[in-house]
Specification:
about 700 residues, Heat Shock Protein 90, elongated, seven-stranded mixed sheet, about 25% strand, 4 domains, alpha+beta
């Protein structure tokens, strides 16, 4: 018998005989640990291998045994002692190694009834039967406690020799298998469990379920680009760490277009190097030096966990700032906006990890200068930022923010950082209020659209309590007059006439024009509203607003090269990414990317900007709103938001009416739709509809 094994056996046997009840208690504790670690034996063995500086990890079924091997450092006497003792370990916390309790190896009790370890000069066996023989009494004994000389049931010498020749240094042999447990673990093993390991590069399973997993880690300075290939299927990840020796890390899944994509809920879990069952609250993976329960499947909320959570939040803030300076990957802000709320937690006193984490992230953003302003090259915190309200056009929003010394988060950020505006709103960036806009118009005249929008929003919000803002409203310059331009109500003498363009625009915006009359009456205004033939007398709940000459229609060309130029009806065939199962917006983006006259195409359809696609031609920028119909010629409708945006961008705004079939995508492009379509305002839904239109017709075949 090896001297190390002999000494340890004598030590623990003496202890057991002097206190057999303690040995029995250790057996019960081992059973509890094994049950807690159910279906995590492979994970624990992987952790041990990675701590031992292993690059390769191998599991093979041989006859009725399972062989596990790694090429890490060889076992020492201290390692054997740590395995034999409960709650003891040679590992340390704070990111140097993974485990720290010394009880994880006892999870292998779920795999087999007899376990052998072969490493360097050490060859030992753990067996309840052999321990009971030594004790010489009928007593419940643990599997992993008293080591024995290597005593296999089967002959494994050939396999051991082959593994040692293949430079594996430590071999575990499991005999008298509980086969179902291992098969389940191998079948459902998630290769992303390897993300936060330090060194493991290859994992191979050769059991009833075979898998080969290779991990490649490439350091790109601020992050590691990790590629995991499982049986030929590849996943790419960005893994951010503050420092290479720190535990805290954030991992984002990356698709084939190098865009960060959200994880499914069951995969977006907290890792304490290996995965727990706690959800992050965001569709990413995070790793930290989190305390866990004995099973290592649930995070426990203590000082160490809180400290690690705070460090992870600080890391996300750094990632945001870095990404704003170097937007090489899209999708970050979309992902960070998809926070998951727990309904259960609202009715429970139990503290959920994800709720605590999201709140800590909010706090970190509030305290940090996370926003990088590309205009002046400076960083700003949330309190210096303002988001654009839906009711206000971009031009006036930018002017108002300049006057109140705030950094405006305009629509341009959405094309650079998709999802940015929703992210800003989600994490507490304040929206410009109507009160702030009203104050601004006391000293600054807005545009016509801006004046209409401010007045309309005032009526909407303060319809029944105008007295509360009467002073500011009387001083604000939000109404344009035919000769005098913008004047405040205090400056009126009763002879002024509202500008006709302003008046028509106001009628379009207001749901009920009587609200305007009521406001002027309440404020005792001398305003003389010019009487037009009322277009706001509701009949059958509809109005008609005519725009431009119906005989003047537009043929708009996207400069698509085609050999068929005989008419405006074009059929274009491309070997492209167009797919009939994808959405109309996505397929149209794919087509536009093939147009040689277009430099850049950005899909912003999820951002509620009043349009779906931005296209760039040199310094020119155009905005496309996609309307899906069953057939070209079908009725379309546009919302008030889309109407306002079209009114703002005019000739830069393009309506793309699209019909998608199994054969292809047919699109009618209409430029400046407000001036080139007959629109009817449908009062019941407050949207603009059109049942006839002319434009350039294109057909893109799948």
């Amino acid at each position: 018998m090896n001297e190390i094994i002999k000494e340890l056996q004598e030590l623990f046997l003496k202890e057991a005989k002097s206190s057999p009840m303690l040995l029995s208690d250790l057996a019960s504790m081992e059973t509890y640990i094994a049950e807690s670690y159910q279906e995590r034996s492979i994970i624990e063995l992987l952790q041990n291998a990675d701590d031992a500086l292993s690059n390769r990890f191998f599991i093979k079924k041989v006859k009725e045994s399972i062989i596990v091997a790694n090429d890490g450092r060889k076992f020492t006497a201290d390692d054997v002692m740590a395995i034999c003792r409960s709650g003891s370990s040679t590992k340390k916390r704070r990111g140097v190694t993974i485990g720290y309790r010394g009880i994880g190896f006892k999870s292998v009790v779920n795999l087999a009834d007899r376990v052998h370890i072969i490493s360097s000069d050490i060859a030992l066996t753990f067996s309840r039967q052999l321990t009971s023989n030594l004790m010489q009494e009928d007593l419940k004994v643990p599997l992993i406690r008293i080591p024995h000389d290597y005593t296999p049931i089967e002959d494994h010498e050939k396999v051991i020799s082959e593994l040692l020749e293949d430079n594996f240094n430590t071999i575990f042999i499991f005999e008298q298998l509980k086969q179902d447990n291992l098969d389940n673990e191998v079948e459902y093993f998630d290769s992303s469990s390897l993300l936060f390991l330090r060194r493991t590069k290859q994992v191979e399973f050769d059991t009833n379920f075979s898998k080969l997993i290779n991990v490649n880690r490439k350091n790109n300075g601020n992050y590691n680009f990790v590629t995991i290939i499982e049986d030929g299927i590849k996943e790419n990840w960005l893994v951010y760490r503050k420092k290479s020796n720190e535990a805290e890390a954030i991992a984002f899944l990356v698709d084939e277009n190098m865009t960060l994509v959200p994880l499914e809920a069951h995969r977006s879990v907290v890792h304490s190097f290996m995965p727990t069952k706690d959800n992050v609250g965001l569709p990413v993976k995070i790793n930290g030096d989190f305390s866990t329960d004995p099973s290592r499947t649930k995070v426990t909320y203590d000082d160490s966990t809180k400290s690690s959570m705070e460090e992870c939040c600080k890391l996300i803030v750094e990632i945001i700032n870095y990404h704003m300076r170097n937007p090489e990957y899209h999708g970050l802000f979309d992902i960070l906006s998809k926070k998951e709320e727990s309904v259960y937690s609202k009715f429970s006193t139990t503290q959920k990890f994800k709720e605590s984490f999201i709140q800590l992230l909010r706090n970190s953003l509030d305290k940090s200068k996370w926003f990088y302003n590309r205009r002046d090259g400076k960083d700003y915190c949330s309190e210096r930022l303002k988001a654009n309200p839906e009711w206000l056009n971009e031009s006036d929003f930018l002017d108002f923010c300049t006057d109140i010394d705030c950094i405006p988060l305009g629509k341009q950020y959405e094309s650079i950082y998709p999802g940015f505006l929703k992210f800003s709103e989600t994490y507490g960036v304040k929206i410009l209020t109507i009160e702030e806009a009203l104050q601004n118009t006391i000293n600054r005249s807005p545009t016509i659209n801006g004046g209409i929008e401010v007045l309309t929003e005032i009526i909407k919000k303060y319809r029944f309590h105008l007295e509360s803002i009467k002073e500011d409203l009387n001083k604000a310059k939000i109404i344009k007059f035919s000769e005098e331009g913008f004047l405040s109500l205090n400056e009126l003498n009763g002879r002024e006439e509202i500008d006709s363009e302003y008046y028509e625009g106001l009628k379009i915006k207001l749901n009920d024009f009587n609200d305007l009359t009521y406001m002027f009456k309440t404020l005792n205004s001398p305003l003389n509203i010019k009487e037009y033939n009322s277009l706001y007398e509701h009949k059958n709940h509809t109005n008609s607003i005519m725009h431009s000459n119906t005989e003047s229609k537009l043929n708009y060309t996207l400069s698509t090269k085609t050999q068929n130029n005989e008419s405006n009806n074009k059929v274009l065939k491309f070997n492209s990414t167009l797919q009939k199962w994808r959405s109309v917006e996505v397929n149209l983006v794919s087509f536009l990317q093939l147009d040689e006259s277009i430099d850049k195409v950005v899909d912003v359809s999820k951002s509620n900007l009043g349009y779906d696609i931005e296209i760039y031609r040199g310094s020119d920028k155009e905005y496309i709103e996609v309307k899906s119909v069953e057939r070209i010629g079908g009725t379309i409708s546009i919302t008030n938001n889309e109407y306002s945006t079209a009114n703002e961008f005019k000739e830069k705004y393009i309506l793309a009416i699209a019909s998608q079939t199994n054969e292809g995508l047919e699109v009618c492009f209409i430029k400046d739709p407000l001036n080139n379509l007959d629109l009817i305002k449908r009062v019941t839904r407050w949207e603009w509809i059109c049942d006839s239109y002319e434009g350039e017709l294109n057909f893109f075949r799948f």
